[in-house]
Amino acid sequence: MSHKICLDNIAIVLNQPRFSENIGAAARAMRNMGIRELVVVHPYKLDMERVTRMATHAASDVVADIRFADTLQEALAPFGFVAATTARLGGQRVVHTPPVMAQKLIPVSHENRVALVFGREDRGLSNEDLRLCHALVNIPTDEFSSLNLAQAVMVMCYELYTATLSEKRPFSPRLASRYELDGMYDQLKDVLIRISYVNPENPDYWMNHIRNFFTRLRLRAREVSIIRGLIRQVNWYAEKRYQDGLAEGKAATKQPKEDGTPQP
Protein backbone atom coordinates (compact mmCIF):
# COMPACT_ATOMS: atom_id res chain seq x y z
CA MET A 1 0.00 0.00 0.00
CA SER A 2 1.14 3.53 -0.80
CA HIS A 3 2.44 5.65 2.06
CA LYS A 4 0.65 8.70 0.64
CA ILE A 5 -2.87 9.90 1.25
CA CYS A 6 -5.37 9.56 -1.61
CA LEU A 7 -6.75 13.07 -2.12
CA ASP A 8 -9.27 11.85 -4.68
CA ASN A 9 -11.15 10.17 -1.81
CA ILE A 10 -11.14 13.25 0.43
CA ALA A 11 -14.07 15.67 0.65
CA ILE A 12 -14.56 18.88 2.62
CA VAL A 13 -17.98 19.25 4.22
CA LEU A 14 -19.17 22.69 5.39
CA ASN A 15 -22.09 22.38 7.76
CA GLN A 16 -24.47 25.36 7.73
CA PRO A 17 -21.95 28.04 6.72
CA ARG A 18 -23.32 31.53 7.32
CA PHE A 19 -21.20 33.51 4.85
CA SER A 20 -21.05 32.80 1.13
CA GLU A 21 -17.56 34.29 0.98
CA ASN A 22 -16.30 31.56 3.31
CA ILE A 23 -17.59 28.91 0.95
CA GLY A 24 -15.67 30.50 -1.91
CA ALA A 25 -12.51 30.94 0.15
CA ALA A 26 -12.73 27.32 1.31
CA ALA A 27 -13.06 26.18 -2.32
CA ARG A 28 -9.96 28.16 -3.21
CA ALA A 29 -8.00 26.66 -0.30
CA MET A 30 -9.07 23.19 -1.39
CA ARG A 31 -8.02 23.83 -4.96
CA ASN A 32 -4.62 25.08 -3.80
CA MET A 33 -4.04 21.78 -2.03
CA GLY A 34 -5.44 19.39 -4.62
CA ILE A 35 -8.79 18.55 -2.98
CA ARG A 36 -11.77 18.98 -5.29
CA GLU A 37 -14.88 17.58 -3.61
CA LEU A 38 -16.87 20.15 -1.63
CA VAL A 39 -20.15 19.42 0.13
CA VAL A 40 -22.21 22.27 1.61
CA VAL A 41 -24.99 21.57 4.11
CA HIS A 42 -27.92 23.99 4.40
CA PRO A 43 -26.01 27.26 3.83
CA TYR A 44 -27.44 30.51 5.19
CA LYS A 45 -28.63 32.94 2.47
CA LEU A 46 -26.45 31.41 -0.20
CA ASP A 47 -25.18 33.87 -2.83
CA MET A 48 -23.34 31.98 -5.57
CA GLU A 49 -22.02 35.19 -7.07
CA ARG A 50 -20.15 35.97 -3.87
CA VAL A 51 -19.01 32.35 -3.64
CA THR A 52 -17.60 32.46 -7.17
CA ARG A 53 -15.97 35.85 -6.68
CA MET A 54 -14.12 34.68 -3.57
CA ALA A 55 -13.14 31.34 -5.08
CA THR A 56 -11.66 33.08 -8.15
CA HIS A 57 -11.37 31.46 -11.55
CA ALA A 58 -8.73 29.04 -10.27
CA ALA A 59 -11.29 27.19 -8.12
CA SER A 60 -14.26 27.55 -10.45
CA ASP A 61 -14.32 23.79 -11.07
CA VAL A 62 -14.65 23.12 -7.32
CA VAL A 63 -17.51 25.62 -7.07
CA ALA A 64 -19.25 24.20 -10.14
CA ASP A 65 -19.23 20.70 -8.62
CA ILE A 66 -20.43 21.64 -5.11
CA ARG A 67 -22.91 19.10 -3.76
CA PHE A 68 -25.60 20.60 -1.57
CA ALA A 69 -27.43 18.70 1.18
CA ASP A 70 -30.24 19.58 3.56
CA THR A 71 -28.81 17.78 6.59
CA LEU A 72 -25.40 16.71 7.76
CA GLN A 73 -26.57 13.10 8.00
CA GLU A 74 -27.60 13.20 4.35
CA ALA A 75 -24.29 14.80 3.36
CA LEU A 76 -22.23 12.14 5.14
CA ALA A 77 -24.17 9.12 3.85
CA PRO A 78 -21.65 8.19 1.08
CA PHE A 79 -18.58 8.35 3.30
CA GLY A 80 -16.90 5.44 5.05
CA PHE A 81 -14.90 7.61 7.45
CA VAL A 82 -15.75 11.03 8.88
CA ALA A 83 -13.44 13.36 10.82
CA ALA A 84 -14.85 16.46 12.47
CA THR A 85 -13.02 19.63 13.41
CA THR A 86 -13.67 21.03 16.87
CA ALA A 87 -12.35 23.80 19.08
CA ARG A 88 -13.67 22.14 22.23
CA LEU A 89 -11.31 19.94 24.23
CA GLY A 90 -11.54 18.00 27.45
CA GLY A 91 -13.98 15.48 28.82
CA GLN A 92 -13.80 12.03 27.28
CA ARG A 93 -13.00 13.30 23.81
CA VAL A 94 -10.00 11.91 21.98
CA VAL A 95 -8.90 14.78 19.79
CA HIS A 96 -6.04 14.62 17.30
CA THR A 97 -3.85 17.38 15.88
CA PRO A 98 -3.97 18.01 12.11
CA PRO A 99 -0.65 16.26 11.32
CA VAL A 100 -1.64 13.19 13.35
CA MET A 101 -5.04 13.05 11.68
CA ALA A 102 -3.46 13.33 8.24
CA GLN A 103 -1.23 10.35 9.00
CA LYS A 104 -4.19 8.34 10.29
CA LEU A 105 -6.08 9.02 7.07
CA ILE A 106 -3.32 7.65 4.81
CA PRO A 107 -4.37 3.97 5.02
CA VAL A 108 -8.07 4.80 5.40
CA SER A 109 -8.19 6.96 2.27
CA HIS A 110 -7.09 4.17 -0.07
CA GLU A 111 -10.19 2.04 0.45
CA ASN A 112 -12.74 4.57 1.74
CA ARG A 113 -14.26 7.91 0.93
CA VAL A 114 -13.30 10.33 3.71
CA ALA A 115 -15.16 13.46 4.80
CA LEU A 116 -13.62 16.26 6.84
CA VAL A 117 -16.43 18.27 8.48
CA PHE A 118 -16.37 21.92 9.54
CA GLY A 119 -19.09 23.54 11.63
CA ARG A 120 -20.76 26.91 11.24
CA GLU A 121 -18.71 29.99 11.97
CA ASP A 122 -20.39 31.11 15.17
CA ARG A 123 -20.83 27.84 17.07
CA GLY A 124 -19.05 25.00 15.30
CA LEU A 125 -20.52 21.50 15.37
CA SER A 126 -23.12 20.38 17.88
CA ASN A 127 -22.80 17.24 20.01
CA GLU A 128 -25.39 15.64 17.74
CA ASP A 129 -23.25 16.49 14.72
CA LEU A 130 -20.15 15.04 16.37
CA ARG A 131 -21.92 11.73 16.98
CA LEU A 132 -22.00 11.24 13.21
CA CYS A 133 -18.18 11.34 13.08
CA HIS A 134 -15.52 8.72 13.68
CA ALA A 135 -12.72 11.01 14.87
CA LEU A 136 -12.10 14.57 16.05
CA VAL A 137 -9.36 16.97 15.08
CA ASN A 138 -8.39 20.25 16.71
CA ILE A 139 -6.21 22.98 15.23
CA PRO A 140 -4.00 24.22 18.10
CA THR A 141 -4.01 27.99 18.61
CA ASP A 142 -2.82 30.44 21.22
CA GLU A 143 -5.20 32.27 23.55
CA PHE A 144 -7.75 33.05 20.82
CA SER A 145 -9.03 29.66 19.65
CA SER A 146 -11.57 30.74 17.03
CA LEU A 147 -10.36 30.45 13.44
CA ASN A 148 -12.05 31.80 10.36
CA LEU A 149 -13.79 28.93 8.58
CA ALA A 150 -11.75 29.24 5.40
CA GLN A 151 -8.53 29.49 7.41
CA ALA A 152 -9.38 26.27 9.22
CA VAL A 153 -10.09 24.57 5.89
CA MET A 154 -6.73 25.75 4.56
CA VAL A 155 -4.84 24.42 7.59
CA MET A 156 -6.42 20.98 7.28
CA CYS A 157 -6.08 20.86 3.49
CA TYR A 158 -2.41 21.77 3.82
CA GLU A 159 -1.80 18.94 6.27
CA LEU A 160 -3.61 16.50 3.99
CA TYR A 161 -1.66 17.71 0.98
CA THR A 162 1.72 17.42 2.65
CA ALA A 163 0.78 13.87 3.62
CA THR A 164 0.57 13.12 -0.12
CA LEU A 165 4.15 14.08 -0.77
CA SER A 166 6.57 11.25 -1.26
CA GLU A 167 8.35 10.59 1.96
CA LYS A 168 11.96 11.59 1.51
CA ARG A 169 14.30 8.85 2.52
CA PRO A 170 16.85 10.27 4.93
CA PHE A 171 20.33 10.42 3.48
CA SER A 172 22.37 7.54 4.82
CA PRO A 173 26.07 7.76 3.93
CA ARG A 174 28.32 4.73 3.91
CA LEU A 175 29.65 4.47 7.42
CA ALA A 176 33.13 3.17 8.04
CA SER A 177 33.33 -0.58 8.32
CA ARG A 178 34.64 -2.32 11.39
CA TYR A 179 37.78 -3.19 9.40
CA GLU A 180 38.37 0.46 8.50
CA LEU A 181 37.78 1.64 12.05
CA ASP A 182 40.07 -0.97 13.58
CA GLY A 183 42.81 -0.01 11.15
CA MET A 184 42.42 3.65 12.11
CA TYR A 185 42.49 2.85 15.84
CA ASP A 186 45.62 0.69 15.50
CA GLN A 187 47.35 3.40 13.50
CA LEU A 188 46.27 6.10 15.95
CA LYS A 189 47.41 4.11 18.99
CA ASP A 190 50.81 3.53 17.43
CA VAL A 191 51.46 7.20 16.69
CA LEU A 192 50.11 8.37 20.08
CA ILE A 193 52.52 6.00 21.81
CA ARG A 194 55.41 7.18 19.64
CA ILE A 195 54.78 10.85 20.47
CA SER A 196 54.28 9.96 24.17
CA TYR A 197 50.66 11.12 24.26
CA VAL A 198 49.47 7.89 25.88
CA ASN A 199 51.14 5.64 28.40
CA PRO A 200 52.76 2.75 26.49
CA GLU A 201 52.22 0.55 29.54
CA ASN A 202 48.42 0.88 29.30
CA PRO A 203 47.48 2.48 25.95
CA ASP A 204 44.04 0.86 25.78
CA TYR A 205 42.84 2.92 28.77
CA TRP A 206 43.16 6.13 26.76
CA MET A 207 42.17 4.50 23.51
CA ASN A 208 38.82 3.52 25.00
CA HIS A 209 38.02 7.20 25.53
CA ILE A 210 39.02 7.96 21.96
CA ARG A 211 36.95 5.05 20.64
CA ASN A 212 33.90 6.26 22.54
CA PHE A 213 34.36 9.74 21.13
CA PHE A 214 34.55 8.55 17.53
CA THR A 215 31.67 6.10 18.04
CA ARG A 216 29.35 8.98 18.95
CA LEU A 217 30.31 10.69 15.71
CA ARG A 218 29.40 7.66 13.56
CA LEU A 219 32.35 8.19 11.24
CA ARG A 220 31.89 7.81 7.52
CA ALA A 221 34.35 5.88 5.40
CA ARG A 222 35.63 9.11 3.84
CA GLU A 223 36.19 10.67 7.27
CA VAL A 224 38.19 7.66 8.45
CA SER A 225 40.33 8.01 5.35
CA ILE A 226 40.98 11.68 6.18
CA ILE A 227 41.90 10.89 9.80
CA ARG A 228 44.28 8.15 8.70
CA GLY A 229 45.88 10.60 6.31
CA LEU A 230 46.42 13.04 9.17
CA ILE A 231 47.91 10.28 11.31
CA ARG A 232 50.32 9.36 8.50
CA GLN A 233 51.36 12.99 8.18
CA VAL A 234 51.95 13.29 11.94
CA ASN A 235 53.95 10.06 11.86
CA TRP A 236 55.98 11.26 8.88
CA TYR A 237 56.72 14.60 10.50
CA ALA A 238 57.70 13.00 13.79
CA GLU A 239 60.02 10.60 11.97
CA LYS A 240 61.47 13.48 9.96
CA ARG A 241 62.14 15.53 13.06
CA TYR A 242 63.76 12.50 14.67
CA GLN A 243 66.01 11.94 11.67
CA ASP A 244 66.81 15.64 11.46
CA GLY A 245 67.82 15.55 15.11
CA LEU A 246 70.13 12.61 14.49
CA ALA A 247 71.69 14.39 11.53
CA GLU A 248 72.21 17.57 13.53
CA GLY A 249 73.84 15.55 16.31
CA LYS A 250 76.22 13.87 13.92
CA ALA A 251 77.08 17.18 12.33
CA ALA A 252 77.84 18.67 15.75
CA THR A 253 80.26 15.87 16.59
CA LYS A 254 82.19 16.57 13.39
CA GLN A 255 82.84 20.24 14.24
CA PRO A 256 86.65 20.97 14.43
CA LYS A 257 88.23 21.48 17.83
CA GLU A 258 89.63 24.86 18.81
CA ASP A 259 93.08 23.67 17.69
CA GLY A 260 91.69 22.93 14.21
CA THR A 261 91.56 19.14 14.49
CA PRO A 262 88.19 17.51 13.82
CA GLN A 263 86.23 15.90 16.63
CA PRO A 264 86.71 12.08 16.82
Description:
The protein is an alpha/beta fold. It has ten helices and seven strands. The chain has helices at residues 20-32, 48-55, 60-64, 72-76, 98-109, 127-130, 149-162, 178-194, 203-217, 221-253; strands spanning 10-15, 37-41, 67-69, 81-85, 95-96, 114-118, 135-137. A seven-stranded parallel β-sheet has the order 3-2-1-6-4-7-5. Helix 1 links the parallel strand 1 and strand 2 (37-41). The longest helix has 33 residues, at 221-253.
Distance between the termini: 89 Å
SS content category: alpha/beta
CATH superfamily membership of the largest domain: SPOUT methyltransferase, trefoil knot domain
Total of domains: 2
The arrangement of helices and strands along the chain is: EHEHHEHEEHEHEHHHH
In percent, how helical is the residue content? 40-55%
CATH topology of the largest domain: the name is: Alpha/beta knot
- Reading off the top of the CATH hierarchy, the class of the largest domain is best stated as Alpha Beta
By DSSP (H or I, 4+ residues per run), the number of helices equals 10
Taking all Cα atoms into account, the compactness measure Rg is 36 Å
Shape: rod-shaped
Provide the spatial order of strands within the biggest beta sheet: 3-2-1-6-4-7-5
Major β-sheet, in short?
7 strands, parallel
Mean pLDDT: 87
Return the CATH architecture of the largest domain: 3-Layer(aba) Sandwich
Protein name: tRNA (cytidine/uridine-2'-O-)-methyltransferase TrmJ
Catalytic activity: uridine(32) in tRNA + S-adenosyl-L-methionine = 2'-O-methyluridine(32) in tRNA + S-adenosyl-L-homocysteine + H(+); cytidine(32) in tRNA + S-adenosyl-L-methionine = 2'-O-methylcytidine(32) in tRNA + S-adenosyl-L-homocysteine + H(+)
Domain tRNA/rRNA methyltransferase SpoU type: 10-158
Keywords: Cytoplasm, Methyltransferase, S-adenosyl-L-methionine, Transferase, tRNA processing
